Amino acid sequence: MKFTRYCRSLLSTPAMAVERYTKSHQSGADIAMVDLEDSVPPARKEEARRLAEEFFALPSTKLARSAVRINTLSGPDGLRDLIAITRYRVKPDLVLVPMAESPRDIEIAAGALGRDCPETEFLAVVETPLGIEHAPAIAAAGHRLRGLVFGSADYAFAVGARLSWDALAHARARVVNSARAAGVEAMDAPFFEVTDLAGLRREAGLARDFGFSGKIAVHPRQLALINETFSPDEELLARARRVVAAGLENGRSVTVVDGVMVGMPFFEASQRLIEQFDPPRPDGPPEPTGSPRPPDSPRSAGSPRSAGPQHPQGDRQGPPPGHAPTDTPNHATEK
Q1: What are 211-240's pLDDT values in tens digits?
Q2: Is pTM, for the whole model, over 0.85?
Q3: Considering Cα of 108, then 114, then 116, then 122, what sign does the dihedral take?
Q4: Residue 186: which of 160, 155, 151, 234 has the closest Cα?
Q5: Is 319 helix (H, G, I), strand (E, B) or coil?
């Protein structure tokens, strides 16, 4: 399994709900996103673009990334969104491109942001039959694309399928395989039953076992469970510590840990897992010597972006970068 703090969870808040912006950043989601698409009525798109600028000017938590979901690039609102983003004082870490159906969608977005947003990255939302068909090409669209997001609701509606795990298993598998083949992340669609935490736990577990990096939340109460599901447990972390210790003791030559032969790929993967999910305590023992990769951390406004998401199994490295807390579900991420 692959674990990363880059995108275990994503929580979206409508651009018009300015009062929820601060809580969104403090929600505990890996990605706090402001939505310009489905949650904004057509007559208020321009107002939403103006208001959304404040979302990125707010302080965020240490590991949270700020994101925006633009409108589809098949219409003028998507292009207007991109132009507005180039004028924001603080640029988003991520832009979600909905209804992606070819690499050209990502190329258009990257070209429009151009030199004004050189560090902004992209997630492509794959949610149409054509998008699923072209998922391998979309996933390989360029170095600024960081992952694919599966949009189950729109896809199920388009093909006439039930919105169930079994009915959409093929589409999910194609999204994951396409993303992993290109060395990028894969995020699963939301679980829409807000009060059914047992159902969420089951579906999040299936998504993790399928190879997804994380899952979208439709309500803040889902975040803790999603983050837990897409994080290594104590048993896995304990084994990673033993592997790292054995590697240091044996000069990183092949050795045996818990009856399993391990070598350099295991040492590096275990080191990265510890760096992200088991950092040293201030009063704890010193970090192991050697040449570990720096842990992933998002940039702050005006500072360079760090080395990027570190995957425990050695896939592509690169630069890194919710639904606002409320008691009523907001389906801005039902894509």
Answers
A1: 999 999 999 999 999 999 999 888 888 888
A2: no
A3: positive
A4: 151
A5: coil
